Input
Amino acid sequence: MKRIYVVMGGPSEEHEVSLRSGFEIIANLDRSKYTVSALVIDKKKQFFFAENVDGITPEELTDPKSAERFKGPFSPAGAVSIWHGCDLAILGLHGEFGEDGVFQGYLETIGVKYTGCGVTASAIGMHKSQTKKIIENSGIPTPPYSIWRQGDNIDLIAARHGFPCFVKAPQSGSSKLLGKANDMDQLKSMIEEFSKEAMSILVETMIDGEEFSCPVLEEIDGTVRALTPIFIKPAEGHFFDYEAKYLGKSEEICPPPHSKEVQDLIRTAASAVHKVLECRGLSRTDVILKDGVPYVLEVNTLPGFTKQSLFPQSYASEGKTFGQLLDVIVTRALNR
Output
């Protein structure tokens, strides 16, 4: 059997979400095919390793230092020995030190195979501003945007984009550092707050349309296909922010109540983004549809795998299981 390490946690704002993804991956991996271990990275980038994960609880993942089954802490440099015998790392990481290419580079250096995109696609996909530059230059529609840096004129940015507009820290995921500014005071406040975490801030024109998210999966034979799009219907007063995503304040409809033509437009956009950024394994692209035009918002190169996550929801709409999805991802990564 292949030995699989499920990697989760990390220092980012999305630490808790990543632990939930890791727990669901562990729970759904086929034990008749894989021997499963867990690697939890805490917020100080210390590694905790559990060779046996049978019966593991979310509480153990949250506090691995106190859990008897975990060894550690190890520094990244001091943890090389724990990777001996690992056939594949499934990355349940999100955000900094996981989705941004840094951890992928670490695994490349020590010669461990892993799921998902490579270093370059991960780094670009994690950086919303860089992603938008590339997809815009490739002719893929995306909402108008500005990149604010210290000393830039906020009044000019506000005049270009109007209100409401979206404000984003380019290298944050899961909508943690994202907001909708309804006036100048809110715009200035968000820029001030987010600039504590990022050198530049993305300000984006609000496109008033319907929101979708579309997963793209690389099948075992290397065929890349866009799965069924998910229609995102946030509750009143919420765009698809962190609370809408993870606290149940949105309705996620899959398959969507839209025509095949509309769904194909979204699939085509998601596939184009996956291709132009040279993603591999899997990705998920968020889109706003207005007047028949799919405007790409961003791409997720390590989509979430919690119970609420969109990628497993889309795959399940085809009558397939979470375990079957993991089989495809694992087998393709092992054979690559």
